[in-house]
Design a protein that fits this description.
This protein is 56% helix and 14% strand. The chain has 427 residues and is α/β, with parallel strands linked by helices. Among the domains are: 151 residues, Glutamyl-tRNA reductase, N-terminal domain (Beta Polymerase, domain 2); 144 residues, 3-Layer(aba) Sandwich (Rossmann fold), CATH 3.40.50. The strands form two sheets. The protein has a six-stranded parallel sheet with strand order 7-6-5-8-9-10, with helices on both faces.
Amino acid sequence: MQLMVLGLSHKTAPVQLRERFAIPEDRLPETADRVRAAGGAESFVVSTCNRTELYVACEEGVSDRIVEVLAELGDTRPGTVREHLYLHSGRDAVRHLFRVAASLDSLVVGEPQILGQLKAAYETCRDAGVTGPALNRATERAFAVAKRVRTQTGIGRSSVSVSSVAVDLAKNIFGTLDDKRAVLLGAGKMGELAARHLRQAGISELLVANRSIERAQKVAHALDGYPRSLTELPELLVQADIIIASTGARGYLVSKPEMKKALRQRKYRPIFFIDIAVPRNIDPALNRLDGVFVYDVDDLSEMATENLAARRREAEAAENMVAQEAERFLAELATDAVKPTIVELRQHAAALKQAEVEKALRKLQDLTPKQQKSVERMADGLLNTLLHSVMMELKRAATEPDGHRTVEAARRLFNLDAPAGDDEREQ
């Protein structure tokens, strides 16, 4: 039995192809069951916007049948989808699972969503009874490794999107956002995204100002905010703590004299401008005023790029951690696989030893009980000395790719698979 993962992702397939393989959450167990019918003993399925993956515990030689299952899901031929697939087995499959859980294989390295998506998919399939002990053990370990990566490295600490950087800056300026009011000027996509991030960060109130009140109402409704007309900008400069500028205006919407007047009315409370518009909506000269902070899209992009570089450095440490944990897990599996042989070998050797000790003691009937104990201890010592190197070699070989051959050789040499009572030793 080995672990295998077969799938396609943002690294191997364009979105036009990936969307054909999207599987609704309620159909994940059904899909995993089809994988089992194709030869997998256990399975669970993950499907997100960036990947569709089939995790399988199976014997060798079933991958072609599982490719056919995936091709059917996308209503395409196996040959068409095969060029976009990746197939990992054994050591590589375990490492891939651990990397996916730790967000090292994500489009944005360090993003936290994939771990939750992976957990939800696994739990759905586990509750449906299509997983099993091999996948359960590997997946639970992957979750533990992902948690360790997030707590012991900085892989997810630095924001790497313009919108997330803007929210981080707002938190740095104000400390908390739960009593702050934000205003979105215009309805550009990046502005809406930044406003949505502020909403998720707990902003108290959101106003949406647009030249078209109908457009303002539509966007405000989507963001759980309140519509305003762009003509109300002078009043909004007094009321707002954060202003996101994302209009198509050709000139600056706020002049330095206007901002000075608004500051007096604000009693010089700080105000933060997030200028995502191109051309810019906010005069950068406002930065020279005390309590006014203006960041344009280039400022935010530069910070996001710096954060991404820092995240990549942290990702190197995370990669090393994942590699070590994968090897440790594989070593545990290998040791577990060889344990039955070790137990059988000890029992077999102990039986031989006991028979020889009893035969010797029958011939040495004049020995005192103390001398008999000495004979038994000597036999135990010889047994342990002879078996020690064999046991160590079996455990070492268990971690090697062809370690099963060493185990098979040991079983043949010590006649472990012979029928009971079939020992050929001389009596």
